[in-house]
Structure prediction request, 1185 residues.
Amino acid sequence: MLKTNEFLVALTIVGLSLVIGLISPAYFTIANLFDLLRSATVTGMLALGVLIVIISGQIDVSFTAITAFSMYVTVKILNAIGFNGTVLVAFLISAPIGLALGLINAAIISRFKLPTLIVTLGTQSLFRGFLLFFIGSNLIRDIPGGMEAFWKANLVTLTTPEGALTHLHSSILLLVAAALVTWFLLKYTMLGRGIYALGGAPEAAERAGFSINGIQMFIYGYVGFLAGIAGVAYGSLNRQADPTRLVGSELDVIAAVVLGGAIITGGRGSVIGTLLGVFLITIVNNSLILMGIPSIWQKVVIGLIIIVGTGLPAYQNRRAVGRPSANLAE
Amino acid sequence: MPEELLCVNNITKSYAGVKALEDVSLNINRGEIHCLVGENGSGKSTLIKIIAGVVTPDAGEIHINGKHYPKLRPIDSIREGIQIIYQDFSLFPNLTVAENIALNHELARGQKLVNWRRVRQVATAAMQQIGIKLDLDARVEQISVADKQFTAISRALLQNAQLIIMDEPTTALTQREVRSLFAVIKSLQARGISILFVSHKLNEVLEISNKTMILRNGRKVVDADAREFDRAKLVYYMTGRQIDDSTYDYRPGELTVPLLKVENLTSHGNFSDISFELMPGEILGITGLLGSGRTELALALFGVQPADSGTISVEGKPVEICSIQDSITHGIGYVPEDRLTEGLFLDQSIGRNIVVRTIDRYVGRGGLLDGREVEKGIQAGVNQLSIKAGSPALPVKSLSGGNQQRVVLAKWLASSPRILVLNGPTVGVDIGSKSELHEILRELARQGMGLIVISDDIPELMQTCSRILLMRRGRLVDEFRRQDTTENQLTLKLTEA
Amino acid sequence: MRINNAGTTGQSRPAGTPPKLSIFSLAARDGNLTRLFVIMVAIFVVMSLARPDIFPTLSNFNSMSVQIPEIGILAIAIMLTMLTGGIDLSVTSTANLCGIVTAIILTALVPPTAAGPQVVFGIAVAVAVAITIGLACGLFNGYLISRVGITPILATLGTLTLYMGIAIAITKGTAMFAVPQFLWLGSGTITGFVPVPLIIFAALALVFALILNRTAFGFRLYMMGTNATAARFSGINNARMLVQTYMLSGLLASIAGLIFLARSNSAKADYGSTYILQAILIAVLGGVNPSGGFGKIAGLVMALLSLQFLSSGLSMLLIRYSGSNFLKEFAWGALLIAVMVIDYYSNRRRDRALVEKT
Prediction:
């Protein structure tokens, strides 16, 4: 247990927190915690989707485009019909959009058995280009009433010792729900085990009778679905619909998943690990200021974390394996 | 229940213009151990995959338990009780033993949710059926090959297997483990389960089979009661040729300096205190069961896994071998056992595979390669080893196992090594090509090269080597001269506990 | 006993025919090249017909030849690393970083009034430093991938972020500017007609075509990309080759950065974010196999030209619409997928044709 990747990440978070906290005690406040959770929500939801893609041994970089797409289209639709009711309707619109886009990915990948990195690079461009050209690229500040209300919907409101108010936003519930569903899926359903199987030994999975196409459809559809929901959350949390910003942050999400213990070649990964990875990335992104490090160094730190976080296990693996077996029998 | 379990008639299947199977029929009855024998490329794998529903035949009928299946899917085959244990076991390395055993069973039952307690119960029960006990929570990638096989068999049993197809099951097993496997097979037979045992190891086929079917070039040659066959007949049917019983006689030359001298070579955990000599023109055999350290020894000589202590001398001068580059510099070449992964670049052309080691030789003016010289080099390699191919520009994966091995040899011979270490040189090569390769080895030795053949194929060792070393648990325990020993004696010594 | 020559496996050659030997042609890819040529010509023709007034004109060639070198050089870089079965996602960041450092050095060493030797010296130093940085970035990538053992996607993802981060830290997010004396590299022309960057690109394309097709290094690169394990067992030093390849990629990235700086007179940490996709698209379109081992410069150049024609043509057709860049993005994505699908079908047809022959 002590050696698992998840434990190491947790340890890193604790260590990092101690360091940050020493420099800036403001880190250890509830307000900061609520802030971190809020920042982690969208990334976390997307990361859960990416997790199952990576477990299956594949990769998807189009999910940020799907998120932006479903968010923007939803906002446009709701604004066009003047709907200001509950935000649930927004979710009901964006989730199917995300799902549909994800299924496009699935269709291309499973029908033609194409390399997933390149296909999703293509669909990322496809979706983003389509969105920005045919639908619109303007920032929309007037988001539908439901989303505006959601922006204000806080789960918990506390008063800090200084007298300010601090909130835990209710979107955290979305993340928790997504995490629980994903966890259950992976651990207790045949579909989930099929995803692991596919990542571990694709040919064996096919021979065992798993419906590979079915699993693919589910994986990419699930990512799309989560992206759709995350899109509305993103729009609500930022109180605006900006279709251009999200794309470019997919590397952060993938890094979080990989740091959390998922192996890029597939077959391994867990929800806990992913959440920890997301949390780690979020802490780094948010807390540099607290440490007095100007935010311009943000990317450097993230880059180093990715390198060290993937390098250490890789290097250890090399040393442990050390002796490549030339003979299967031995 | 009908006596006849499986009946496939007039099966034909082509791949990209090549007929893998032509008009093949096979019947298997209950409780029967049926052996499927054939060289590489005979169509064995294709036939199995068709029975499993993984591949669809172009023509022919499949009847299982009396039911006709116009289009057989894997799940249908599984539900009818047909289980295949592939050569690579088709296990999931990242999942636990328990999961590997029980997962397919749960899947076939249409389960949507996973009940982990049931998974463990089911896995334990399956293992009990064949009397083995494995750690349920171990990840399959961490367990031994034999344990993987038992996991695969346990899995097969769970599906109320009526017919278990085993594809070359003993490739990676020690002799003791083979005995265990045969005991398990016999007990399965006693319970009315049929076994289709695919193998090219004639000794085993003769020992365990009730009925034997032989395929050659995609056609059925014969299918009859096993008692009608002996080794010679099997070889004849498989190849259309008589068995080759030539041997190699080493005549020591005037030189007394050994080509290779190994003294007290030790690699912690693999082998210790190995000492031997190899003279020019000699073919030395090294054999031993799994775990004897023989492959590690080869890898140490080739610099892949350098030894921890001891000396290696080439032509009398001590050398240091810490990397593959070192070995090559000192004239040592290595023909690996797993040629598909370690020896060949499958998608590249035959020609490129041949010159890959010596490409620097063809650099001409201005640092550029001289195309014509390269082509000459390729042709020389093709000629020297009589590689049969339409054109050296074809990808090497289009060749048969025997021809592929010739390409690997051509690659090494192009750089004229003084010492050639071959690990399992004829694994996966059909019998006809086997003897041709052996003759190539003998010829190389006659020309003064020193060869080390590492193998567990006793007949092969007897046909090529003049001296055979036996390793056990990392130590050199015995040495035989071919003239003074027989196949049986050697086999006995090999399998002694 | 004679070696038996009577084997029947494998195809037999009619007696007396000399074997068709050519290690420089990979039979499966020749069809790909002709197809690319057809596509390239077709796009050109369509666009010329669509806007005969502005497409096939000299000024358009000039403006197209501006984009071609930058993307083209990056595409060659991506091709190199893809040939090894990996990928270098950090090329744009490296290019930007080099451009930024060059701008800083130029501004420091070459005051606006300077001329003659001082200018030459300043530019030489700046270029030397830029190239060194490019090589260093590539070296680091190669080290991570070959010595530490991180898979290329993740390693270059990390360095992409790191290099961009360093660039941001240096520039604090703003743009850096070059000096006027440097701009000839970007907008100058040789013989008053052919832009300098295009010449540089053409030279690089030729050099790398030679390296890949006609040197031992190129040969070993293709082999290693096909099967790294067999390469190792055949005595190829994989680690060294990987490092060299990624260093070459870094070198090319630095040159691209220089050209970009010279052409646009500015360098920023996040320029060219869509270039990676385009470069990959060009490589894949040009016949590079993402798993390694196959691909030719000729194919890449034709793919590059095809895309440039398409891009330029689209800009013209959509002159009235803003955001034509977005439509191009859409087109790139669609094209990439379309090409791969077409590849799938043409491979299937080839296999089926073989079956019918028997």
About this structure: Residues 212-238 of chain A form the longest helix (27 residues). Chain A touches chain C through 48 residues (CB under 8 Å). Chain A is about 70% helix and 5% strand. Strands of chain A lie at 154-159, 165-169.
